[in-house]
Amino acid sequence: MAVVPPRFKAAYSLSPDWAKACNEVISGIGDVPNGANLGFIYVSDILVDDLSSILAYLRKKINVQNWSGTVGIGVAATAADQLGRITAQEVYDYPGLVVLVGAFPEGSFQVFESGQIETDEGVKLAVTGEGVESWLEANIPYLSVVHGDPRNYDLPLQLSSLAAGLETYLVGGLSSSRSELPQIANHLTESTLSGVFFNETAPAITGLTQGCSPIGPKRMVTSVDERQIFTIDGRPALEVMKEDIGELLSRDLSNIGGYIFIGFPVEGTDQDDYLVRNLMSIDTSDNSLCITEEVDVGQELFFCRRDNEAARKDLNRLLDDMRARLPSPPKAGLYYSCLGRGQALFGPNSEELSVIRQEFGDMPLVGFFANGEISHDRLYGYTGVLTLFY
Prior knowledge:
By secondary structure, this protein is α+β, with helices and mostly antiparallel strands. Helices cover 23% and strands 41% of the residues. It has helices at residues 18-29, 51-62, 132-138, 155-166, 237-245, 247-250, 308-325, 342-345, 351-360, and strands at residues 8-13, 38-44, 67-72, 74-80, 86-92, 97-102, 109-119, 122-128, 143-148, 169-174, 183-185, 188-189, 193-198, 204-210, 212-214, 219-225, 228-232, 235-236, 260-265, 274-283, 288-291, 300-306, 332-338, 365-370, 373-376, 378-380, 383-389.
């Protein structure tokens, strides 16, 4: 039986020198897939100042002209090193460059970027880029891989507007960095959003896994001022929270930071799909809770906790579900995981990525640890978003 040449290759480097890192990635990729026409680049923020040079160098040496990507405080890959050895790597607080190149069907994708524009109706999202308008006229972008700017307050609205306006399913993450926050859309940009549109000739499936699990029943907000929740189910919010999180945690509320969160069920689904938001502060003078999301009276919520065991179980659930949905083995993947996951939730030895590798083997996969994850038309937190091309 003839061996089918790979359509995708991925490689990584941990070198602090950008040129050496690029050459190690090139060596790791080896023979570029025939017809390779799109690449994804993710760098740890230690290399962010070199991202323009990295993009220019890889475009020239690999001879792929279309690129997308961004920066993360951590990056991740199941990929080859310069000697061709494939490992699962999660890189934090260290130089990291991960690259995926692929041969997608001709005309199946379009790199884009977008920004806000002022109109008579208010602020809207304008999609730009060379060839974008004509591509959208001829294609339906059933899937869009996107990278977003976490500094943009209107980003959740922009995501829902883009998804609805183009009837596209969004997957991706928000850039994360301790300094600059560039994105790649064939050049460096600081757009509201950037990424790649795909039509149906580039088949893919995607799914989301939660990192927090509910610890109480669904409840209703009954008094609120923007982010400050005063009463839940007609009772003081702090009193309700203490009831749900239990006596042990309630004894010393200083221990719940980074462990207890607020969950919002997504309308039209069951509690399995929910948005997680941070608890910012507790005011014991009026027993109110301040969170990182504006809330309305009548809105449902529940308390939840970051849970290693539940996160592993849900990741395995996602992988089983995606395996069952795949009509053929996956050829490559993109994975966007929250900064609150990875080593903070699964452990220090690239364990989150290793779970995916155990399911799908040495499939080329790259991604980064995001400041928020994008799935469908919403911005999530403490989740992982996996996309598989087959």
